[in-house]
Amino acid sequence: SLTDSPVTLKILQNWVPRVSHYFDKEHYTYVGHQIVIQESIEHFGAVVWPGALALSQYLESNQEQFNLKDKKVLEIGAGTGLVSIVACILGAYVTATDLPEVLENLSFNISRNTQNMNTHKPEVRKLVWGEGLNEDFPVSTYHFDFILATDVVYHHTALDPLLATMLYFCKPGTVLLWANKFRFSTDYEFLEKLCNIFNTTILAEFPESNVKLLKATVREN
After folding, report:
1. What was the pLDDT predicted at 18?
2. What pLDDT is stored for residue 13 in this prediction?
3. What torsion, rounded to 10 degrees, do the Cα atoms 60, 72, 209, 195 define?
4. Residue burial 149-176, b: 16+ Cβ < 10 Å; e: rest
């Protein structure tokens, strides 16, 4: 239920000062690894949003509660890939997905940050919410232990396809972890719809950043 009291947290300044003169790279440290993220101003998906920082920090700090080692993890709306990289460092089999125009930068960040690690090789794939799910990710083949999503809810028209996508991938036993900055009434409307379909708990709140982190599981009838 949403009534369990979530922990109140602060997004830590986990990035380190830039040593380069480029304004397109951010350096972060999670799980003992320095992660270098190339951002782009061309797409929403190519910037690190606060939800990604919140979820990365939470996964790092709660490895016993959410043990990703050897688990199958899907990130939807992966953007720059920060959360997928953290999941990969934590030992998951990661599939990072986003819109076609975001994939080049996403692939670049993921391969650069994971290529020399002794981890499962992550996969980067196109996923347009609500489109071609059966063809691209047939239920018979794909079962994910965790679905990760950060700052996927904002002013856009794809909220119903996003919800349908979450529902498609969340099978019995799957845990959805969703971190989002809550800015608009549509954000709360989406949360309400999510709560009507899933068993939902707020795990943590980051009041300074207006970020909530939620756990959702499908209702087994």
Report:
1. 46
2. 61
3. -130
4. bbbbbbeeebbeebbebbebbbbeebbb
What span, in angstroms and rounded, lies between the C-alpha atoms of 156 and 163? Answer: 13
Spell out the residues 6+ positions from residue 204 whose beta carbon is closer than 8 angstroms to its own. Answer: 6, 7, 8, 9, 54, 58, 212, 213
Q: How far apart are the first and last CA of the chain?
A: 17
Give per-10-residue mean pLDDT for the chain (221 aa).
72 54 67 88 72 95 96 97 97 97 93 91 96 95 97 88 97 97 92 96 93 94 67
Q: Where are the beta strands (DSSP E) in 59-102?
A: 72-76, 93-98
The token pair at 147 is 């679905």
Q: What is the pTM of this model?
A: 0.90
Q: How far apart are CA 124 and CA 130, in angstroms?
A: 18
Among 108, 115, 124, smallest CA distance to 76 is for 124
